[in-house]
Write a structure and sequence with these properties.
four-stranded antiparallel β-sheet; single chain; 3 helices; alpha+beta
């Protein structure tokens, strides 16, 4: 019969805001967006690539940054030359999850 060598869905445990942020950093660094870029206009593609690189850089530079925790919510903020970034986290069923990523307002 058929047998799956690796789980189809990897185990994900984020018991702290820092754990989910580490997972987000790894995911952002390994994210392939080629298919998405193919359907965007040239102008949108360039803006998206800059935004994604700013996000990846800011997230990496703020590894270990202060996470503000208040009950079942947490937030990491950082500022770069484009403005204030926010990653909002929410405790859901005992696991921290990314609730929203807020880039600088243009």
């Amino acid at each position: 019969g058929w047998r799956v060598g690796t789980p189809l869905i990897s185990t994900f445990n984020a018991l702290t805001p820092q754990q989910v942020l580490r997972y987000l950093r790894r995911t952002a660094q390994n994210l392939s967006v080629d298919q998405l870029l193919r359907i965007l206009t040239q102008r949108s593609r360039e803006r998206f690539q800059v935004l994604l690189e700013d996000f990846r850089t800011g997230l990496a530079e703020n590894d270990g940054g202060e996470v503000q925790v208040s009950g079942d919510r947490a937030m990491l903020e950082w500022r770069n030359d484009k403005g204030l970034w926010r990653i909002k986290l929410l405790l859901e069923d005992g696991q921290w999850r990314v609730d929203d990523i807020v880039p600088p307002v243009r």
